[in-house]
Recover the amino acids of this structure.
């Protein structure tokens, strides 16, 4: 047993230090980024915010809404091949550049991805998603997928330490999802005691990835637009959102009425709800590592999207970054013990 005494930080532990700026308006800030993937050698272009591959967030409807803003969606893995074929056939041209085919590492998962991509060769992204990205089986699966799909951009995760980021990149992944336990409906830290403060995880993993030419996706823990900005400031190339995009028209599930209020269900993909829906229940050898909540119905996601993008643009103006690419270079974080005045809270 050993203890690391280095300070590790979450979003609530820091704020941006403002800096002098020549920008006159938020409208002068460009949030579009252009990357080149490490292995696939393919251009990635757009606003690097991605909806999480949860069936209450990563839907085809969400993809259509976010496509209007050049934002990305990791489509959840429970759509059938027929549903994929119909969506690509009827969706707007170019949307294939902004959506990922998600998969686990089960026996039939690789074949399903192969079938989807064979029927829809324009799709660029594969998202290999497991709760614990530290297993040898996961690394082997990433290698297998790289061999089978040499021209596709492969996203893999989740991990929180630099050495595992490097291993997955060298195994064939282009983008690494970073985050264990920070999500609003994730209970991994409660059930297992395992985790890593998200801001420090982003900083350390970004440093490891960028040294090899790879990219990271900060996945989890963002509750407000300021957290999204802090993720970018810490070095994240992409930020993945779950809870912030839940509860909308485009989110999965039905609108329900509880105590006179309209709500939608939102749950983690390792929750009992998800496992009962997709796997017939929680296996005896494991515990549920997610919760199920009812979030207020929020209407169209566009309002939330504009709020997030506006917040990030505003951050850029406060530190003098005319492009999102410059934000991490102009970021100085200050440690704080409070974030906001909460005298008036609803």
């Amino acid at each position: 047993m050993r203890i690391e005494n280095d300070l590790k930080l979450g979003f609530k532990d820091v704020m941006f230090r403002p800096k002098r700026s020549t920008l006159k308006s938020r409208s002068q800030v460009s949030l579009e980024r252009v990357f080149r993937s490490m292995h696939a050698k393919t251009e990635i272009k757009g606003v690097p915010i991605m909806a999480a591959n949860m069936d209450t967030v990563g839907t085809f409807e969400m993809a259509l809404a976010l496509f209007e803003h050049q934002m990305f969606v990791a489509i959840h893995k429970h759509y059938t091949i027929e549903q994929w074929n119909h969506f690509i056939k009827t969706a707007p041209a170019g949307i294939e550049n902004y959506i990922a085919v998600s998969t686990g590492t089960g026996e039939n998962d690789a074949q399903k991805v192969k079938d989807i991509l064979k029927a829809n060769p324009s799709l660029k992204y594969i998202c290999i998603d497991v709760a614990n990205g530290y297993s040898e089986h996961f690394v082997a699966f990433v290698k297998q997928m790289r061999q089978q799909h040499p021209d596709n951009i492969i996203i893999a995760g989740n991990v929180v330490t630099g050495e595992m980021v490097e291993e997955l990149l060298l195994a064939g992944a282009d983008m690494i999802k970073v985050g264990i336990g920070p999500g609003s409906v994730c209970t991994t830290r409660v059930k297992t005691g395992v985790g890593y403060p998200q801001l420090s995880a982003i900083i350390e993993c970004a440093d490891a990835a960028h040294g090899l030419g790879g990219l990271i996706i900060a996945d989890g823990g963002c509750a407000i637009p300021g957290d999204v900005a802090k993720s970018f400031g810490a070095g994240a190339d992409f930020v993945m959102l779950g809870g912030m995009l839940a509860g909308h028209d485009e989110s999965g599930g039905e609108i329900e009425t509880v105590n006179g209020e309209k709500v939608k269900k939102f749950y983690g993909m390792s929750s009992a709800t998800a496992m009962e829906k997709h796997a017939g229940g929680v296996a005896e050898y494991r515990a549920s590592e997610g919760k199920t909540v009812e979030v207020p119905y929020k209407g169209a996601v566009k309002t939330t999207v504009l709020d997030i993008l506006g917040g990030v643009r505003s951050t850029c103006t406060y530190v003098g970054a005319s492009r999102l690419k410059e934000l991490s270079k102009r970021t100085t974080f200050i440690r704080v013990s409070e974030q906001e005045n909460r005298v008036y809270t609803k």
Q: What stands out?
A: DSSP finds eleven helices and 15 strands in the chain. The chain has a mean pLDDT of 93. The first helix runs from residue 60 to 67. The radius of gyration is 19 Å.
